[in-house]
Amino acid sequence: MSPVIKIHPMEEFKARSRAVLNDVAQQKNFRGAMDFLQAKRRAQFPDREELEGLRDLGAAIRRYSLAHLPRLLEQLEANLTANGVQVHWAQTPDEANAIALSIAQRVKARSVIKGKSMVSEEVEFNHAMQAAGIEAIESDMGEYIVQLAGEKPSHIIMPAIHKTKQDIAKLFAKELPGVAYTEDVDALIQIGRRVLRRQFAEADIGLSGVNFCVAETGTLCLVENEGNGRMCTTVPRVHIAITGIEKVVEKLEHVPPLYSLLSRSATGQAVTTYFNLISGARKPGEKDGPEEVHLILLDNGRTQAYADEELRATLQCIRCGACMNHCPVYARIGGHAYGTTYPGPIGAIISPHLLGLESTYPLAFASTLCGACGEVCPVKIPIPEILVRLRNEAQTHPDSDEASLVGSGAARSVSGTAVWSVWAQVYSRLGLYRLASWFMSRGRALSPTEQGAWTRSRTPLVPAAKRLRDLLKDRKP
Questions:
Q1: Strand 274-278 vs strand 219-224: parallel, antiparallel, or unpaired?
Q2: Which listed residue, 211, 283, 365, 477, has the most CB atoms within 10 A of its CB?
Q3: Do the Cβ atoms of 291 and 84 come closer than 8 Å?
Q4: Which long-range contacts (CB under 8 A, 24 or more apart) does 157-166 make?
Q5: Residue 471 parent element (H or E)
Q6: Nearest to 290 by CA among 344, 194, 243, 220
Q7: DSSP, res 382
Q8: Cα–Cα distance between 412 and 29 in angstroms, integer?
Q9: What CA–CA distance (Å, rounded) separates 385 from 373?
Q10: CA–CA separation, 138 vs 147, rounded Å?
Q11: Which range among 91-100, 206-215, 224-233 shows the weakest confidence by mean pLDDT?
Q12: Sign of the Cα pseudo-torsion (299, 301, 304, 310, in order)
């Protein structure tokens, strides 16, 4: 199995983006995939009024849950503990991995079989386990494919969306002993299933993500299509679930609206194949299920977003990926160009809290602000408005009252600050403005032909030969 390539968010971001833009075949594949997903979503919401009503309800549930988050987390812990689930709190990725590793070492685990979990990607769980000599195998087919390839997922819902069947055929033939090259999709799926079946039976620990945590019942809800999540949470003798602290809701009745929005927005399905409700370990007399269940609740910058009233909306996300599927930027550069666990519009607004604004601020500028992401978000996160806020944070003085994030002012430069300072002076004084516009119109021939990013795809900006006030003067009464 190839080692996973670790990508720093902003290293060569522009270069990675241009590489994809120059890859005609990949551009075609991405465009086709996005068009397909958009069409499936539209088919699930034929009634606009019903969609908006459901979005209003979903947004209200998430806002209510976040408004009462401290109380709900305490209630969740109490009820999970009463159900026999061991709850662990982690502030950082290192703490989360240390908790999981201590559990693995205590039960003398040699291997972990993983269901789909973006939070485990966020903390780089596989690296931590492999460094300790414990094998971690992905069981979601898309995750398994990118793990074999030594890559990161390129989409929240469809990790291997950037791969063609020819790519997967070559990968399986190269990495799996005794597997012949075939482009038959059903055959490729069966090959993957045969390999993973053995892993389910042999693994000591199963790891999963969590879509929703229900505080009043102490229940972990897991949404999936392949059955691998159910296998990971029931076959191994220990089950570890890991999720962000924002995934809690108060009541079980709050889950169905969110579930409907998630499945229909993500993959265009009325319901997913499996919906798992986990409320504890195997009880005496029961024939299956794990002997131990653990939940790791991760902060990793989420409390920074929570502390800000405007940025708190970021935590409403239910990880459906609809914003990516409708984003013109993501559709052209794909997930790997972003270099973050969560790509696309949602990645641009949540990554600054997870990794710091200083290493992620270019993502906020990698947007047309067309508003498509906000229009399709099932829980009405105002993504465009938050992107503008992050742009302002990146440019503000780090010691000013406006600076509220770790890394604020990362995009601020001496030259840029000087230019905008001069601009503000000119445009706030009528005399200076008239003088400056007069010199610009008379000296238009001196305008540079190279104007940075602007002229990479546009013609140079040249002042008009006559100012508007001059044109008005020349008009005859």
A1: antiparallel
A2: 211
A3: no
A4: 157/266, 157/267, 157/319, 157/320, 157/321, 158/33, 158/321, 159/116, 161/30, 161/33, 161/335, 162/26, 162/29, 162/30, 162/334, 162/335, 162/336, 164/29
A5: helix 468-474
A6: 220
A7: -
A8: 37
A9: 11
A10: 7
A11: 224-233
A12: negative
| Amino acid present at 130 | Q
What is the reported pLDDT for 3? 45
pTM of the model as a whole: 0.90
Q: Tell me the average pLDDT across 409-414.
A: 84
The predicted pLDDT at position 2 comes to 43
Total residue length of the chain? 477
Higher pLDDT, 473 or 238: 238
Long-range contacts of 271-275 (CB under 8 A, 24+ apart): 272/223, 272/224, 272/225, 273/224, 273/225, 273/226, 273/227, 274/222, 274/223, 274/224, 274/225, 274/226, 274/227, 274/229, 274/230, 275/221, 275/222, 275/223
State pLDDT tens for residues 299-315.
Answer: 999 999 999 999 999 99
Domains and CATH numbers, the chain: 13-303 (3.40.50.10420), 424-474 (no CATH)
